[in-house]
Amino acid sequence: MDTSLGGGAPQRPATGAAGLDAGAPPERRRRTAPAEAREPNPARILALGFAGVILLGSVLLSLPVAWEPGQRVGYLDALFTATSAVCVTGLVVVNTAETFSTFGEMVILALIQVGGLGVMTMSTLFALLVGKRITFRERLIIQEAWGQLSPAGMVRLVQYVTLVSVAFEAAGTLLLTLYWWQAYDMPFGLALYRGFFHAVSAFNNAGFDVFDSRRPSLERFAGDPVVTLVIGGLIIAGGLGFTVLADLGRRLRHRRHRLSLHTRLVLWTTAALLVAGTVLVAVAEWSNPATLGSLPVDRKLWAAFFHAITPRTAGFNMLPMAELTSLTVLTTILLMFVGGSPAGTAGGIKTTTLALLLATVRATIRGEDELVLMDRRVPTLTAAKALALAVLGAGLVLVVTMGMLLWDHHPLTATLFEAVSAFGTVGLSLGITPDLAPVSKVLILLTMYAGRVGPLTLAVALTRRGRRPPAVRYPEERVLVG
Predict the structure, then answer these.
(1) Which of 87, 178, 212, 476 could bond 448 through an S-S bridge, CB–CB 3.0 to 4.6 Å?
(2) CA dihedral over 152, 154, 157, 163, signed as positive or negative
(3) Quick one: where's region Disordered (predicted)?
(4) Which pLDDT value is given to residue 134?
């Protein structure tokens, strides 16, 4: 019955999210709209921060002082290199050691460090050093950058991330310097420089190297157990994520501390990928004379193990990429797409995303309504986010691959490999990067940027901030699937 007529009680204004705005006076709507528009969008600020550092790096690498005598780097190649460094990828269009001077290499290393730790981490660290107070807005941006669940403790997180990074990079520098100086007769100064550069590059999962093009990357150390353990260990540590490292540290200090579900998922998934990758590479390359075939048995195993590590967004290679068998190439593509773990220096869809997708498939097959992992129930929204990330990643790779095929005439496998490597911020290539057309280079550098910032973060950055509660709850209806 209509109660708004006759002597009935007046109709109350709607109390839903839309109703509050509808019932408010025009003056109130005009006052609140600008305030809402001024609310920070951490994802957008984060994306713009990375873009700003990339542009600054490209300008520095365009300066003649950044080049070796007789070399010249165009702006597009400088922009590509800066993007690859900030996005800790390692794809290069020119050989780093032969093209860039010591100044240029130090610029690249600085970009790697900023890109690996994050723009907000570095700016927050600088602010703390000069005694500046960290605002709540800045804490929200740090939270977005490291994928944390709460803005609480962000300053402590920045301090921890910095200390852990310095510790790992210093240890790696020391070990590589001493080993290359003694075992490979490098002059001490050269061993120190290369040890420092590769330790920083490895921990940040960048994959940049300063060896000449005759035996690029780490091919001269194929199967070397010390180089494999040191650089491989740095890659794994950086790829696990600082959240996992902090949780493991608490477990070491307090034996009764229970590892979080996130940490256990990361460790189990990482171990499974390493074992499976090592076995597949060893089987595929064991008799290949161009890769593992000419190495002793022990070095074959070490080289296969390293090749299972490096697609997890690192980009170093001990085996000549152009000589790999089709099975190894496919295995590498899958490992690159998965990448490392959240809150670290790695890219890809992340190990936890893979674990959640597989768990969702298992729950669906079993007809279970809830997603349960290791005696813990995972929120539905988290599983949906994992699915969205995987779909966005696969869609981006597909679009970029198709775009590159329009402009270049490289084989499909090499083109797909390049696109996945860029999305996963890996840096491995089948050798087509220097020969890409300008349009394809732009597509790859945009893909590296999206892979480092994160497809979901980038999508949020390009949309309006804030999620309003739905004004209407619609009826449910089932859809046929499969």
Answers:
(1) 87
(2) negative
(3) 1-38
(4) 66
Domain ranges within the chain, ordered by starting residue:
42-461
Q: Which of 421, 414, 212, 278 is nearest to 336 (CA)?
A: 421
Q: Which tens digit of pLDDT belongs to each residue from 372-383?
A: 888 889 988 889
Each residue of 429-448: pLDDT tens digit?
999 999 999 999 999 999 99
DSSP-derived secondary structure letter, 220: G
Kindly report the number of other CB atoms within 10 A of residue 148's CB atom: 18
Question: CA 340, CA 465: separation in Å to the nearest integer?
Answer: 28
CA distances to 406, 415, 426, 431 from 411, rounded to whole Å, are 12, 6, 20, 11
3-state DSSP assignment of residue 169: helix
Rg (Cα) of the chain, in Å, rounded? 25
For 205-244, letters b (16+ CB in 10 Å) and e give: bbbbbbbeeeebbbbebbbbbebbebbbbbbbbbbbbbbb
Closest CA relative to residue 421, chosen from 309, 315, 320: 315
**How far, CA to CA in Å, does 339 sit from each of 180, 192, 349?**
29, 29, 6
Closest CA to 202 of 90, 111, 126: 90
Split at pLDDT 50, 70, 90, the class of 346 is confident
Query: What's the rounded mean pLDDT across residues 155-163?
Result: 79
Lowest mean pLDDT among 10-24, 181-195, 247-261: 10-24
List, in order, residues 6 or more apart from 167 with CB less than 8 Å away: none
Q: Which of 48-52, 126-130, 194-198, 334-338 has the lowest mean pLDDT?
A: 126-130
Average pLDDT estimate for 242-270: 89
Number of H helices, E strands in the chain: 20, 2
Report the distance separating Cα 345 and Cα 238, nearest Å. 6
* Residue among 104, 36, 120, 119 at smallest CA distance from 71: 104
Cα separation, 199 vs 172, in Å, equals 5
pLDDT above 90: percentage of residues in the chain: 58
Contact 203, 238 (CB under 8 A): yes
Q: 263 versus 457: which is more confidently predicted?
A: 263
Long-range CB pairs of 222-226, under 8 A, 24+ apart, other chains included: 222/295, 222/299, 222/303, 222/318, 222/319, 223/295, 223/296, 223/298, 223/299, 223/300, 223/301, 223/302, 223/303, 223/318, 224/299, 224/302, 225/298, 225/299, 225/302, 226/175, 226/179, 226/183
**Amino acid in position 363:** A
State the average pLDDT for the chain: 85
**Tokens, residue 231:** 């650089």
